[in-house]
């Protein structure tokens, strides 16, 4: 920050000098000048007097500099609130897996303030990472350098009901956008499991919902405004700049800080959600027809059981309101009884009354906390969860943005991959084959795999860095494994360091799944869940795979244009998608 403030001060002094020149007094005519009178007043100073004078001059100069700095600072405070960014801001992602102390956290509330922050960081060669709601399970938005948050840039700017578009600031929350669209009879085409994301982060990370005919959310972007270090505000539209937008849609904050987005909308609609529990063989037999027919489809596989939770959503047909409402089933108040019984039997809680007010997912977390890495215990917890879903199965009706949300649980590690699964009209077998291979790996290795393993689908995305980059008729399957970071019962402070053991175990689990299953299907990892390996050889292998899967040379060329000094990158981005020009420059400086 000191470098940025210094640059700011130098700029202000130059502007002041160019605008206001101190007038000099006109010299007196020679005839009017008086010679200095003789006497002691003009006698040479002693060494002691000269030293005192110098000290007075230095002290006076320091006072003047301090006063000028204070005046300048106060003036800037009134004019620009970003000078009051929070220093040494402690930031954590939503899942609690990554923490960083940002040297300075900027929270601009206008686009002009955002432009100023980016411009001054560029001028001062200061790293500046963009952050939204910090919901990514990895550390994609975290940095120990300066961070600029879009949280205060959260307005819904314009809704065009005729064109079915909405223009929002990047920090607008997905839930707030959905609420603003409802009175206009509009909604977004799809939603992820949670809606607390900022729209900018939602798009830049390549987030997705589920539905074979629905692309990831970046495909909904028809206009994008980036604040770039080198070129200032750059406005892109799908109609005018399709090639640039294809690279900027999913760009991981590397091309510029997203300021505004225009999203395509669809008519608001209600969904009928049906939840059933089936055996794995039944799911496989019915899958091809089901994925073609369902508007939204999600499978939740319960490891170490033969249970698969099938959640299907279809649009409420015209005139079908009465029938759907009649089919809407109230949840079984005793659905969580199997989880409660296991908690009491294992003395995780003293009695069933202690479970009052707890959700089934709270109970699952408590149970797993007893022995989260013991495969035998995890099997018992998963079996109780499968029984819960049997009891909770049923139908409900609601608006799409309400229905498509899902309780993801508490602190957790997640790894999600995406791979091709045929075509929308003709689904392949890759999705079911992948799950068969994964479940066999878990079973044979007696892995303490937590539930659920979530499986979803989308069609292709026009964004070239999307894991589902492809045509609109391409079908992609997404599969996510999970491990909850739960403390031992009664050890909420984690004095026993259970979480670090879980962290290490999940790193092994993730690597094993990638090595034994993911690579077989050329799976691409979700950017928001991708962790750079610590082992140099593994990191090199991952970089090579990413370079093969994505057009990184073109992407880095655009990075060099918009961000020539690479100030927008953090350690995470530099590890995964390094820039040769930056590395060569750093090597040259070290050699010099």
Give a description of the structure.
Residues 14-49 are annotated as: Disordered. It comes from Prototheca wickerhamii. Its cofactor is FAD. Residues 98-268 form the FAD-binding PCMH-type domain. This is FAD-binding PCMH-type domain-containing protein. The longest helix is centred in the first third of the chain and has 33 residues, at 47-79. β8 and β9 form a beta hairpin. α9 (337-345) packs antiparallel against α11 and α10 runs antiparallel to α11. This protein is of the alpha+beta class. The protein has four domains: 83-149, Uridine Diphospho-n-acetylenolpyruvylglucosamine Reductase, domain 2; 156-267, Uridine Diphospho-n-acetylenolpyruvylglucosamine Reductase, domain 3; 270-330 and 393-530, Vanillyl-alcohol Oxidase, Chain A, domain 3; 545-591, no CATH class. The chain is 38% helix and 21% strand. The strands form four sheets. Strands 15-12-14-13-17-18-16-19 form an eight-stranded antiparallel beta sheet. A five-stranded antiparallel beta sheet has the order 5-6-10-8-9. The chain is built from 18 helices and 19 strands.
Task: Bin the strand percentage.
Answer: 15-25%
Q: Compute the number of structural domains.
A: 4
Largest sheet: 8 strands, antiparallel
The best one-word shape is: globular
* Classification by helices and strands: alpha+beta
Q: What would the average pLDDT be, to the nearest integer?
A: 87
The CATH homologous superfamily of the largest domain = FAD-linked oxidases, C-terminal domain
Quick one: CATH class of the largest domain?
A: Alpha Beta
CATH topology of the largest domain: Vanillyl-alcohol Oxidase, Chain A, domain 3
Number of helices: 18
Instruction: Determine the N-to-C terminus distance.
Output: 26 Å
Q: State the oligomer.
A: single chain
How much is the radius of gyration in Å?
30 Å
Q: Could you give the count of β-strands?
A: 19
Strands across the major sheet, in which order?
15-12-14-13-17-18-16-19
List low-pLDDT spans.
1-46, 70-82
CATH architecture of the largest domain: 3-Layer(aba) Sandwich
Helix residue percentage: 25-40%
């Amino acid at each position: 920050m000191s470098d940025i403030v210094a640059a700011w001060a130098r700029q202000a002094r130059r502007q002041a000098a160019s605008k206001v020149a101190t007038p000099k007094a006109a010299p007196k005519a020679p005839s009017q000048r008086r010679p200095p009178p003789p006497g002691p007043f003009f006698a040479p100073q002693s060494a002691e007097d000269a030293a005192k004078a110098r000290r007075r001059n230095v002290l006076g100069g320091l006072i003047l500099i301090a006063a000028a700095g204070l005046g300048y600072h106060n003036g800037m405070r009134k004019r620009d609130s970003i000078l009051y960014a929070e220093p040494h801001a402690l930031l954590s992602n939503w899942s609690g897996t990554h923490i960083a102390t940002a040297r300075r956290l900027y929270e601009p509330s206008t686009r002009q303030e955002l432009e100023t922050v980016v411009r001054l960081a560029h001028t001062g060669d200061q790293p500046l990472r963009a952050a939204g709601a910090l919901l990514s399970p990895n550390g994609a938005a975290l940095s120990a350098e300066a961070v600029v948050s879009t949280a205060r840039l959260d307005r819904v700017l314009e809704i065009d009901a005729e064109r079915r578009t909405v223009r929002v600031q990047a920090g607008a929350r997905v839930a707030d956008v959905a609420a603003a669209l409802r009175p206009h009879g509009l909604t977004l085409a799809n939603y992820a499991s949670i809606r607390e994301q900022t729209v900018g982060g939602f798009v830049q990370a390549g987030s997705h919902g589920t539905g074979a005919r629905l692309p990831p959310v970046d495909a909904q972007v028809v206009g994008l405004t980036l604040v770039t270090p080198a070129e200032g505000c750059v406005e892109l539209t799908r109609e005018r700049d399709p090639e640039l937008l294809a690279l900027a849609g999913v760009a991981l904050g590397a091309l510029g800080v997203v300021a505004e987005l225009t999203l395509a909308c669809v008519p608001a609609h209600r969904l009928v959600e049906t939840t059933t529990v089936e055996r794995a063989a039944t799911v496989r037999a019915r899958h091809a027809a089901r994925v073609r027919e369902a508007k939204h489809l999600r499978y939740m596989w319960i490891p170490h059981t033969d249970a698969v939770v099938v959640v299907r959503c279809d649009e409420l047909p015209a005139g079908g309101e009465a029938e759907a409402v009649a089919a809407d089933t109230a949840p079984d108040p005793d659905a969580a009884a199997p989880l409660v019984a296991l908690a009491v039997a294992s003395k995780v809680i003293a009695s069933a009354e202690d479970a009052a007010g707890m959700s089934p997912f709270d109970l699952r977390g408590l149970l797993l906390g007893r022995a989260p890495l013991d495969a035998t215990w995890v099997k018992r917890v998963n079996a109780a969860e499968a029984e819960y879903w049997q009891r909770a199965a049923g139908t409900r009706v609601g608006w799409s943005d309400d229905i498509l949300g899902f309780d993801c649980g508490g602190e957790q590690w997640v790894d999600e991959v995406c791979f091709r699964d045929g075509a929308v009209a003709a689904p392949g077998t890759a999705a079911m084959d992948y799950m068969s291979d994964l479940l066999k790996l878990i079973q044979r290795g007696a892995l303490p795999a937590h539930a659920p393993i979530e499986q979803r689908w989308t069609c292709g995305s026009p964004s070239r860095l999307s894991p589902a980059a492809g045509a609109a008729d391409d079908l992609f399957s997404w599969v996510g494994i999970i491990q909850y970071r739960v403390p031992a019962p009664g050890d909420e402070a984690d004095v026993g360091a259970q979480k670090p053991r879980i962290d290490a175990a999940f790193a092994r689990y993730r690597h094993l799944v990638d090595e034994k299953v993911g690579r077989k299907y050329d799976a691409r990892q979700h950017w928001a869940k991708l962790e750079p390996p610590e082992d140099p050889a593994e990191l090199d292998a991952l970089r090579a795979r990413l370079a093969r899967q994505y057009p990184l040379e073109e992407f880095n060329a655009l990075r060099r244009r918009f961000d020539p000094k690479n100030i927008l990158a953090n350690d995470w981005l530099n590890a995964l998608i390094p820039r040769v020009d930056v590395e060569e420059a750093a090597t040259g400086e070290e050699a010099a």
